[in-house]
Design a protein that fits this description.
This protein is α+β, with helices and mostly antiparallel strands and about 130 residues long. It has one domain. Helices cover about 30% and strands about 10% of the residues. The chain contains 5 helices and 4 strands. The strands form 2 sheets. A two-stranded antiparallel sheet has the order 1-2. A two-stranded antiparallel ribbon has the order 3-4. About 15% of the residues are buried. This is Prophage protein.
Length: about 130
């Protein structure tokens, strides 16, 4: 969670393909985690780390539209056609907001070895040996 927040804390305007820049801090503060309880359908061995995590800890919800989705997928220019619509062959790129990097995937890839080690260790600790009858 901390590493994902660090990736979006750079105070600069982000270019297409880069990690999102930091202006108000809403995106960074919205990243939280949740450990769901075990149920009939779920073993309970799971953790979710995401922006706007419902029932999450350590986050503040983003109200309104889901802003990280706009950053990841981008926003195309409107359909307004006027004399100077500057799009396509006339020079514009067609994007109002070009897609940014998926910083959550980058963080997971960076911490892949630690995550595998930690999950394997906890799984080993949680397994109980089968009782043998004499």
């Amino acid at each position: 969670m901390r590493d994902a927040r660090r990736l979006v804390m750079r105070r600069a305007r982000s270019a297409p393909g880069e990690n999102p820049g930091y202006q108000t801090g809403r995106l960074a503060r919205s990243i939280g985690y949740m450990v769901p309880r075990a149920s009939k359908k779920r073993a309970g061995f799971m953790t979710r780390i995401a922006p706007n995590q419902r029932n999450g800890k350590g986050n503040r919800m983003i109200s309104g539209d889901f802003y990280p989705a706009f950053l990841f997928f981008g926003v195309r220019g409107g359909a307004k056609r006027r004399r100077s619509h500057h799009r396509g062959a006339s020079g514009g790129s067609g994007w109002r907001l070009a897609p940014r990097n998926n910083f959550m995937v980058e963080t997971l890839e960076k911490n892949r070895s630690w995550t595998r080690y930690f999950l394997a260790r906890e799984l080993r600790k949680s397994l109980k040996p089968e009782r043998r009858h004499r």
